[in-house]
Amino acid sequence: MTQDTPHLRPKPEAAPDTRPYHHGDLRAALLVAAEDELADRGMEGFSLRSVAKRAGVSHAAPAHHFGDAKGLLTALAAEGFRQFLAAQAAREAVAAPDPASQLVAAGLGYIDFALSRPTLFRLLWQSERPDFSNPDLGQAARAAYSHLVDQVTEAGGGNTADEAAVWAIAHGLADLLAAGRMMSVGSLPAEARDAMLVTIIRRALPAP
Amino acid sequence: MTQDTPHLRPKPEAAPDTRPYHHGDLRAALLVAAEDELADRGMEGFSLRSVAKRAGVSHAAPAHHFGDAKGLLTALAAEGFRQFLAAQAAREAVAAPDPASQLVAAGLGYIDFALSRPTLFRLLWQSERPDFSNPDLGQAARAAYSHLVDQVTEAGGGNTADEAAVWAIAHGLADLLAAGRMMSVGSLPAEARDAMLVTIIRRALPAP
DNA sequence: TCCGTATCCTGACACTGTCAAGATAAGAGG
DNA sequence: CCTCTTATCTTGACAGTGTCAGGATACGGA
After folding, report:
1. B20 CA → D19 C1’, Å
2. B69-93 and B118-125 are packed helices; what angle lies between their axes, rounded to 10 degrees?
3. Do B44 and A42 touch (CB under 8 A)?
4. Both B116 and B170 in a single domain?
5. What is the pLDDT of residues B182-201, one digit of tens each?
6. From A128, A164, A179, residue closest to B126, measured CB to CB
7. Domain boundaries, position A35
8. 0.85 exceeded by the pTM?
């Protein structure tokens, strides 16, 4: 949900030409700005001062809401994990109700998320910047894992190998496609690409 | 901006500064120092000045050999891809000679590399810092991909889905294990872990 | 109304990467 | 042996970064 930041965002009845001293909902605005920053400059070009500038606020303002940069990225990662689960749920909602189809749909949602928000995907899975001992983030991350385990169990798998195989193949596809490294699949048109992904993911499913 | 910082740096005339003005093989030393830096401080804590300090050289010395930080990381990534292939070759050398076993061995080598050098693995596959249009790096990266395609072809698979499935499952396992996210597999003792990985990778192999 | 306090700003510091200019050593040609 | 050229390395500077300290502002009760 990248917003286009056209101009100021005053409360409708506020003074039109002067930005109020108090932002109103700076915390949410900073999270939006942080995701825009990640999308624009990548994980390694991320700058806290630039995020503050995007939100139209001084360079030290984020500290009051998030402590430091790690705190901001921790909050963003927690929100990201929730949206990550939502992307899977969106695919599951339009898939056949049998467990195997639901599991494949979850894999497609996994990949959808990585393709539509590649840098946020990296923040969740590969970055060392979020604080994963944070309770909120830890809970959000565990929820994602639990969802996988539940789906595999319902699809008939019960052991470690079943879980790991499905997880690894979905994650591997997501990561390689998000990084633009798997062009043989990534350059296909959306429909053909989805069909290909379904074929691949089905290989890792527990044998019936 | 520390202009009047007291430089308490007594260059001892009496004490022999045995370090010669010219290093001798600074380029190689910087590559070693850079990998140490990545291993110690992670991808996001990497500092060019710190690398120079590790090599016992001034902060601007790396510029002459690599241009800028991107240049250093590009050279390191090229070297990394060659070691990445070497890790696969090491596993292949001790595996059965049939194509399927060789392909599984390559997958184990893929994972070995990610586990023994996790940050370097990220530099190769997820970082935006290396310049992948660099000829040397491009060639090294293509060699890794060609090796995969060759192995899959010999193992009887010929289509895109075959290649992608094996690649994705090896890469997914490597990335999740290197990040410490797949503890159900990662916490196993080495021998049991390898057996588990073989079981998982075989699922993605082309059907005979 | 008034005041406590959450919110936000300004200024400073130690870092970072990169550029410019000078110092030093190695090697080639006489 | 002596100069000259060139590659190598150092020093110093600048803008940008994250974070801390202290001051300014305005919201929300009392």
Report:
1. 38
2. 110
3. no
4. yes
5. 999 999 999 999 999 999 99
6. A179
7. 26-66
8. yes
